From TrEMBL:
Keywords: ATP-binding, Cell membrane, Membrane, Nucleotide-binding, Sulfate transport, Translocase, Transport. The lineage of its organism: Bacteria, Pseudomonadati, Pseudomonadota, Gammaproteobacteria, Oceanospirillales. Gene3D superfamilies: P-loop containing nucleotide triphosphate hydrolases. Transmembrane segments: none annotated. GO terms for cellular component: ATP-binding cassette (ABC) transporter complex. It comes from Pistricoccus aurantiacus. One of its GO terms (molecular function) is ATP binding. Residues 3-246 form the ABC transporter domain. Pfam families: ABC_tran, TOBE_3. This is Sulfate ABC transporter ATP-binding protein. InterPro entries: AAA+_ATPase, ABC_SmlMolc_Importer, ABC_transporter-like_ATP-bd, ABC_transporter-like_CS, Mo/tungstate-bd_C_term_dom, P-loop_NTPase, Sulph_transpt1, TOBE-like. It comes from the Bacteria.
């Protein structure tokens, strides 16, 4: 089921939670709403759900006539219970006094008699769902006898029991530890692909959004900053906010004169006009070398080293740097350079980014990689 939002806005008294926005979600897509606290993610999700009404009528001299379509159906005024939506919330919200089986069956057994499947069908469907979330042997347990991750899998099964067209998840893994989160992300992706529903989830975790989503909607202050596939977002951010929000950033500010940017005793050849410039780099866009090159002189001291999974994070300081830089290296490069704390190295830039006041970004290469 595709979802189309047109001209949707929301104000709470004097607070504008959402400025007028449009959003198209394709059938079968898994879309993440990502943004800092207060950016409007939950409000947008609740409007899609029908738990919150978008603004109507004229406000501040503008006409707000937002519409929501699920496929060809205009659901703007359709009640939440008739929108065929499954929900998963951060706090599992399972019924404590009901077994896992009864929790998953709840939506089905509560249906009016004419819509309710037979008890045999309900049993089959619930067992199939519990099998999908690999909890079939837990059917008779109570929520308190399950781990957080297991409870959230029950929530997922419960949300899917009514075969929703759309699954909405609000920080579904927010209360779980890192490893369980990772596992549940794989679960969700797998179930989503197998069952083919359309999903929208809210998160403030960049990694989660990038790993799980087909497309990510990046929000700030009630506005959509960018909608793109994770890879595009990371490589071609629409503006500085998106760039900074999506990962660690190293900053180099200096004066450019005749193609050389200078900052203290640091120098870098750049293809930029004369004047003050600010370049931004991701940690993996730095390269460390033993000697400076002809075009780049960025000396720094290694102040910390931390192996994190498949890479090594190296912190660098220098007199010309107001705050430390972070470089990420592959283990092989780290070993080849024999890097130690206190060592003096030279930084080269594989790539840098620059954001003007206008929204278009500019990226440059300082080094052929
Ligand atoms: N019921 C409400 N009454 C008044 N203001 C509200 C209400 N709900 C949300 N807001 C305001 O609307 C803005 C957006 O809130 P929203 O919960 O959508 O943000 P969010 O991005 O989901 O944040 P978080 O990640 O902290 O949940 C905030 O300024 C919030 O204070």
């Amino acid at each position: 089921m595709s979802i189309r939002l047109t001209n949707i806005s929301k104000t709470f008294g004097k607070t504008t939670a959402l400025y007028p926005l449009d959003l198209d979600i394709a059938e079968g897509e898994l879309v993440g709403l990502l943004g800092p606290s207060g950016s409007g993610k939950t409000t947008l999700l609740r409007i899609i759900a029908g738990l919150e009404q978008a603004d109507r009528g004229a406000q501040a001299g503008r006409i707000h006539a937002g519409r929501i379509h699920f496929g060809a159906r205009d659901v703007t005024n359709v009640h939440v219970r008739d929108r065929r939506i499954g929900f998963v919330f951060q706090h599992y919200a399972l019924f404590r006094h009901m077994s896992v089986f009864d929790n998953v069956a709840f939506g089905l057994t509560a249906l009016p008699r004419r819509d309710r499947p037979s008890s045999g069908e309900i049993r089959t469907r619930v067992h199939r769902l519990l099998e999908m979330v690999q909890l079939e042997t837990f059917a008779n347990r109570y929520p308190a006898q399950l781990s957080g991750g297991q409870q959230q899998r029950v929530s997922l099964a419960r949300a899917l029991a009514l075969k929703p067209d759309v699954l909405l998840l609000d920080e579904p893994f927010g209360a779980l530890d890192a490893k369980v989160r990772q596992e549940l992300r794989r679960w969700l992706r797998h179930l989503h692909d197998e069952l083919g529903f359309t999903s929208v989830f809210v998160t403030h975790d960049q990694e989660e959004a990038l790993e799980l989503s087909d497309r990510v909607v990046v929000m700030s202050n009630g506005r959509i900053e960018q909608i793109d596939e994770p890879d595009t977002l990371y490589r071609a951010p629409a503006n500085r906010f998106v760039f900074e929000f999506l990962g660690d950033v190293n900053r180099l500010e200096g004066e450019v004169r005749n193609g050389i940017l200078t900052c203290g005793d640091a120098r870098l050849a750049v293809d930029l006009p004369n004047g003050h410039q600010e370049l931004l780099m991701r940690p993996h866009e730095l390269r460390l070398t033993i000697n400076p090159s002809e075009t780049t002189h960025l000396p720094a001291i290694v102040t910390a080293i931390a192996p994190v999974g498949a890479e090594i994070r190296v912190e660098l300081e220098a007199d010309w740097l107001p705050s430390p830089w972070l470089a990420t290296l592959r283990h092989a490069d780290f070993e080849r350079l024999d890097i130690r704390r206190g060592q003096r190295l030279y930084i080269e830039l594989r790539r840098w980014h620059r954001f003007d006041k206008d929204p278009a970004s500019h990226a440059g290469f300082a080094l052929a990689s």
